Amino acid sequence: MWDQRYDREEYVYGTAPNDFLVASVGRLRTGGRVLCLGEGEGRNGVWLAGQGFRVTGLDASAVGLAKAHRLAEQAGVEIETRQVDLAQADLGSAEWDAVVSIFCHLPPDLRRRVHAGVVRALRPGGVLVLEAYTPAQLDHGTGGPPHAAMMMDLATLAEELSGLEFEHAVELRREVREGQGHFGLGAVVQVVARKP
């Protein structure tokens, strides 16, 4: 599915980084190792690499990751990518200074496993930056999965990310303008959480 979605000249979600990630980058350790989940075509990882971070992007789509490398080359930066299904991915243990999850929507059982893996994978002091659509997004139809179960809210995230301390946690409606894939008013949840 994702190979087909990304198999076009244009970048489905644009080439600019996510607004919330840009606003949150000051909370990350300068030059740290960052893991980007569901990195797709590379817009967030490439931008982070340009800020001096050492980036590894995970995605199931070989087509998306090839576009990520082209974007990195155009930007004059390097990123590491791994083509992997998150259902089988080992995120490591105390390995990352930050994990970035931007609109990485997964089925509930898998999402719980991945989020538990994120908590294990962060080093002490490491930070998770997450933005996702909430179930209220179904009223907008401006992006995201068609099923509420694949969306997130603060109560669910507080349970799934037990072990992290939330420094920023909010549900809101905001304009999301990211290529053709996310365009218009959206209902989102935003979290910055740190591992003690």
TrEMBL record:
Q: Which domain of life is it from?
A: Bacteria
Where does the record place the Methyltransferase domain? 34-126
Keywords annotated in UniProt: Methyltransferase, Transferase
Q: Which InterPro entries match?
A: Methyltransf_25 (IPR041698), SAM-dependent_MTases_sf (IPR029063)
Spell out the SUPFAM superfamilies in the cross-references.
S-adenosyl-L-methionine-dependent methyltransferases
Please indicate if the UniProt record lists Ribonucleoprotein as a keyword: no
Membrane-spanning ranges:
none
A GO BP annotation = methylation
Which CDD domains did the record assign?
AdoMet_MTases
**GO terms for MF:** methyltransferase activity
Q: Which PANTHER family match?
A: PUTATIVE (AFU_ORTHOLOGUE AFUA_2G14390)-RELATED, TRANS-ACONITATE 2-METHYLTRANSFERASE-RELATED
Name assigned to this protein: Class I SAM-dependent methyltransferase
Record organism: Parasulfuritortus cantonensis
